[in-house]
Amino acid sequence: MGQFMRMNPPKFTGTKVEEDPQEFVDEMEKIFKVMHVDEVEGVELAAYQLKDVANQWYNEWEDLKSEHVEPTVWAEFVEAFLDWFFPLELREDKAEEFINLKQGMMSVQEYSVKFNQLARYAPEMTSNMSSRMRKFVS
Fold it and tell me: pTM for the whole thing?
């Protein structure tokens, strides 16, 4: 736990508008990769970072699935977490925002930052773009 806390993991409360559930998941996954955390341990570490409403949700969710004897794995946690805190409609709105992003009055740097922030919401599009770019560069 000490090494995990030194990585400065994000907390998620589920009470603040500026909290981004997808960003929480992405940041946790980066830490897990560096620490070589397995799928079950990742859930335990992420659950430790859930506070307030998010912690209440997690405890209730775990209680509901308590009839399963197998421990929760990361993919299962992420699906339930995003379904609850980042419903499909909101994810689709973010993907739409990405699709319709125009530079307009933004500098190239501002546009690049916004592009990269929104790209995570349209992973199928960005993976297609990067594979086409690799073919083009080869």
Answer: 0.69
What's the average pLDDT block by block, 10 residues per block, for the chain (138 residues)?
Answer: 84 91 93 94 96 96 79 92 83 73 83 74 60 46
- Residue 56 in tokens: 């209440």
CA distances from 112 to 10, 23, 45, 105 (A): 24, 17, 32, 13
* Nearest-angstrom CA–CA distance, 7 and 49: 12
Q: How far is Cα 83 from Cα 136, in angstroms, rounded to an integer?
A: 36
**Residue 44, CB-side half-sphere exposure with 13 Å CA sphere:** 8
Nearest alpha-carbon partner for 33 in 90, 74, 65? 74
d(CA 87, CA 125): 20
**Structure tokens, 2:** 């000490």
For the chain, what is the radius of gyration of the CA atoms? 17
